[in-house]
Amino acid sequence: MWLNSHVSRRLRAIAARPGLNCEQVLAQLADRVRMDDTGALTVGAFTPAPY
After folding, report:
1. Among 16, 18, 21, 27, which is disulfide-ready with 50 (CB 3.0 to 4.6 Å)?
2. Alpha-helical runs (H) found in 1-51
3. Which pLDDT score is estimated for 48?
């Protein structure tokens, strides 16, 4: 997946707080994705958790 530099920096910062890498945060995020009635993907409030 390609992310622009701003998003990539934010993702790395978010991942570093609980001691995760970017792939772990994205995997946790992917587990929480839901599709609504219109086909749009949504994710509720999310805080990455250490494994």
Report:
1. 18
2. 5-16, 22-31
3. 94
Q: Is 27 helix (H, G, I), strand (E, B) or coil?
A: helix
Q: What residue has token string 């993907």? A: 41
- Give the angle 10-45-34 at the CA atoms, nearest 5°: 105
pLDDT digits (tens, 9 = 90+) for 1-51: 788 999 999 999 999 999 999 999 999 999 999 999 999 999 999 899 997
Using CA atoms, how far residue 36 sits from 7, 20, 31, 45, in Å, is 25, 29, 15, 16
42: Cβ–Cβ under 8 A, 6 or more apart, which residues? 33, 34, 35, 36
